[in-house]
Fold each of these.
Amino acid sequence: MAGRAMRVVGWIAAALALMSSCARAEPAAGDRDVAVVIDAGHGGYDHGTSGTRTGVPEDKLNLQVAKKLEQALENAGFTVVMTRESDDIQYDPHSGVSRKTQDMRQRAAVIESAQPGVVISIHMNKFPDGRYGGPQVFYHQGSEQGKLLAEAVQNQFNAHIEGSDREALSSGGYYILKVSSAPSILVECGFLSNERDERRLQTETFQQQLADLMLAGLLDWLEGNQPVASN
Ligand SMILES: [Zn+2]
């Protein structure tokens, strides 16, 4: 099948990139399928949270970051599948099922048919106390590889983003992390309740930095070679 062939080609390209960056590196993934599903949280009628000062809707920022991550991963040779490419989400008004449930089922169907090696869901955080800021990565509790992937991405954030010092955390409550048995992480890119985060999350530069650091963390995890976070 074309999709399968694409994934194989993507995997080979990723493996070659890894080998050229480190002569002795062996793909840690074995025969793992390395299609990456990127899930831009919310969208359609569901705007998610919003910026305290500017009112910027979370769903818009999620999609902007997700598209930058898509490009970064494709440039690195990965095959990427998006759960949504736009703000246009279709709902069946006669299904008797809530729009939120329909939306989540549609995302789950995309993930299941992609048979991904990794799932990355993009969100923005909010908290009553505006002092709290910085990106934070979540993984599904009990997933050992999910934990390692989350820590690899969090380490990249903490090493390169000003004010980033949070820890990767487990959660049992995120539906999107439970859909696939593949390592799945949810990245809260920052707090829309924090002045610095709300400002920088709306800039191309910071969005690109987030995408590049997520790719770097993914490659660290694939190499089984996580850098030590700076303290
Ligand atoms: Zn969200």
Amino acid sequence: MDPSFWHERWSARQIGFHEGQPNAMLVKHFARLKLAAGSRIFVPLCGKSRDLGWLLEQGHSVAGVELSRIAVEELFEELGVSPAIENRGPLMLFSFEDLAVFVGDFFKLTADQLGSVDAVYDRAALVALPASMRPDYARHLASLSGSVPQLLISFDYDQSATNGPPFSVPGSEIEKHYGKAYRAELVESAAISGPLSQRCTGTEQAWLLSPA
Ligand SMILES: C[S@@+](CC[C@H](N)C(=O)[O-])C[C@H]1O[C@@H](n2cnc3c(N)ncnc32)[C@H](O)[C@@H]1O
């Protein structure tokens, strides 16, 4: 999916994916990652999600990457803090205390730039990408994070009912991307709600990926 698609969505404020509160499945299942206090969580394709603030409130550090500078400026504004802004090759780094967000293309972020992370939280990242991009996304995520434990929120619905994003990524596909490195456990499956429920029926699923 072309970066211009997402830049246009942010400019036109077509951000129905943005939840104004921490994701319910994150809040419910985050403890399953069994992280030590002060762990560092990587949130790919983070938008301006309230989940980042919630993770910080749990006493963790957070690293994100997001294509849209608009999103990242609003993220820090809504947290009520002024980030330091630095160039990092083709990306920029916005940071304040325990929060570091790279602005730019996820696929251009390197493991050296990101630094080590203890867990990955993916909400509306894998499912934001078309099928042709998802294998590269999963491979690059593994190269960045070293297959640390992951909480992944996904959708499972009939893809012929509506076009993504968000796309349907059922358990069989999650197994294909992550089955070698992880044991995948479905920890919740609930009827799709929110804007997507006007386009299709299906389930929103929380997956716990534990290193195999
Ligand atoms: C569906 S939104 C989800 C945002 C956030 N995870 C949330 O839960 O609100 C997907 C986000 O990924 C960003 N994005 C898409 N492709 C990207 C890429 N290649 N690199 C970095 N961010 C990307 C978009 O700008 C958009 O904000």
